[in-house]
Fold:
Amino acid sequence: MRVTPTPDGSSSFGVSERMVNFAVRLPPKEWLEAWRPQTVRLIVPAPFAPRLRDKAAVRVQLAGKSVAATVLGTVVGIHRTDGHPVVELHPDADSLPAIRMLVAAARGQEVRFLQRPIRYLVKMPVVVEWNGSGVYANTTTISEKGCALRWAGIRPTVGQSVRLRVGNGRRAVDIPGVVCWSSAGGAGALAGVRFAERGAPSPIWASVLAEALRSGAPQA
Structure:
């Protein structure tokens, strides 16, 4: 995996995908005004002006609350308010649950927000072996103990044992895991895999995480 940061806060994942990432901290009232459910648009201030059609990962923190989430989407508009960039984002379908959670929290409703190991938004090809065959997939997020995957075709069931082949040639490694969640997703099956290995991650997986951290991959 190669993750290359760029000066404007963007990163290139894999070969061709470019993603800008930034964080915003908004009072609950401003967050509710920023989200436009009728048009499925999120309008937030940005520290720089991205390009139209850029993919973006926006880390949203609600001021005064211990609730935060990352929203992924596509930049569909760029405006300026008092000379500062304002981004209009069309969120991905996979980010709508995070948006709904932030809306509920901003309205003062009780939400389930569990602290969990840091996950990074990284797209990386892997081979998933299960039921005696292998399928090609891409990670959507990675962490020390697992990853989320997307691929076309039938998805495994929760509890299914799988093996992930990561890397190429002599640097390839097989990592056993278990499917801990699964959903249809928007563009192919989505599934979360928790690694079955105990203790420290394999050296190759540790190097993947280190490269994500070093290159500034956004947190999920």
About this structure: The chain has three helices and 15 strands.
